[in-house]
Amino acid sequence: MSLDRQKLEALTAQNITLHIYATLPSTNQxxxxxxxxGAKPGSVVIATQQTAxxxxxxxxxxxxRGGLYLSYAxxxxxxxxxxFQLTLRTAWGxxxxxxxxxxSVQLKWLNDLxxxxxxxxxxxTETKVNQGIITKAVVGVGINWTNPVPETGINLSSFINTxxxxxxxxxxxxQGIERGINEPVAxxxxxxxxxxxxxxxxxxxxxxxGVIIGITDTCDLRLRLEDNSExxxxxxxxxxxxx
Length: 243
Prior knowledge:
- The structure is a single chain.
- By secondary structure, the chain is an alpha+beta fold.
- It has one domain: BirA Bifunctional Protein, domain 2.
- The chain has six helices and twelve strands.
- Strands 1, 2, 3, 4, 5, 6, 7 and 8 form an eight-stranded mixed beta sheet that branches.
- The chain is globular and about 60 Å long.
- The two termini are 32 Å apart.
């Protein structure tokens, strides 16, 4: 399977610079190298297979042929304290764009795209920081298309026929990233929570139990405990799983 550059260019905005490959170790890794060589924000690396894809917390991202593996270069110039907002924005933007096409995509905190509580895709954001400011970022996205998936996953092409080819899925993903990055923050958090499948989920932290009630503006998970007090959990501090 290969991507048709001409078809993809016709579907994407003029500010996007496409770098298309059949197989790469990692689209994020390749894009960082291109940035080092002078690639600008709006540069996008796409592959139909990764041999060394990465997920959150150093996990390997299984990336067989038939999936979409895409990385997008940004120059956000935001405080490092807002770094998780890049992932939140990307997840919300892609999910919302797919929803406008009638595809009921929801979100699992913080970076998973889900359909029917099964994983459709994930996001890995990497950054470069200078004096407390994120000057460069690469947002990596993996979405299941025709590739095989585990029991907890879902394959988009077997679920719907709204998106006829991988080129259109790539274009929609790029549009979704840009939509999320440009969304005013005042609108973003409540809109993200509307798609969050974890609202109302019961969890246990140490010897305390509670219910998830939302997220903070730094993307921490808000948990209301049994005594009605509230605690916040940083991204990566709690695995919510699929069940």
